Amino acid sequence: MKKAEEKKLRRLAIEAEEEPETGEAETDSQTSDRPLVQDGSVTTRCNGRTIHCLTIIGQIEGHYILPSQNKTTKYEHVIPQIVAVEEDPQIDGLLMLLNTVGGDVEAGLALAELVAGMKKPTVSLVLGGGHSIGVPLAVAAKRSFIAESASMTIHPVRMNGLVLGIPQTLEYFRRMQDRITNFVTQNSNISKERFVELSMNTQELVMDVGTVLDGPDAVEEGLIDSLGSLSDAMDCLGKMIDRSKKTRSGTAKTGSRKKKAE
């Protein structure tokens, strides 16, 4: 009986020692998978370059939670990612993939301003669609691509729900539209006059005012830089990263020479 009890105690002791190691392994695995599962983002490393891939999909969710059946991009999740990419010295560049119907104007503009203000190389690729407030997001990157089968819808600002029919409401709409127009024209090659003309087109959309641009049309209008696929966007981003590294190394050498001279 004593031998049986001793064996049982030894077995329990061995199991107790193994449990913490198993728990740590499970935690590490969950941590590595969390960005892809929860945020739809991934960081890849290849050919000496580290690239963070950010997806903007579905509807851009702002200050109000959308119904659970909607595919959404939550801006409070994306903002920290963009800040982390800019501040992380191990990440060389950002690839932003868009397939969005638009959404909250201020949330979309907030994300677009963050991307436009980044120092690191950034490339955007519109797949499927980059509609409404997705247009400023697409042009916010330093270089923008669009798939030939993709499209972009340009239309004026709209608001759902109760709206007060007073002059101040119209003035608010006008000022918000100007914010979008100015951002798009400052970050692309389309003129302000042409962008407003496309937004106010009444001949194309049955239930709305605006224009739908296919991939080639978006490039021809100067809204997007180039037609291309994922490989084209990745090649462009890789070249931008290499140029950025050369510039940084050249600046570092110049700084060291100045210190020696002093």
Description:
The protein is α/β, with parallel strands linked by helices. It folds into two domains: 1-39; 42-153 and 211-254, 2-enoyl-CoA Hydratase, Chain A, domain 1 (Alpha-Beta Complex), CATH 3.90.226.10. It is 52% helix and 21% strand. The chain contains eight helices and nine strands. It has helices at residues 2-39, 75-87, 105-116, 134-140, 167-186, 192-199, 215-220, 230-261, and strands spanning 42-46, 49-61, 72-74, 93-103, 122-130, 143-146, 151-154, 211-214, 226-227.
Radius of gyration computed on alpha carbons:
25 Å
Q: How far apart lie the N and C ends?
A: 84 Å
Relative strand content? 15-25%
Per DSSP E runs of 2 or more residues, the count of β-strands stands at: 9
Oligomer: single chain
Helicity, as a percent range: 40-55%
CATH superfamily of the largest domain: 2-enoyl-CoA Hydratase, Chain A, domain 1
Number of spatially distinct domains: 2
> Biggest sheet: strands, sense, closure?
7 strands, mixed
The secondary structure category is alpha/beta
Number of helices: 8
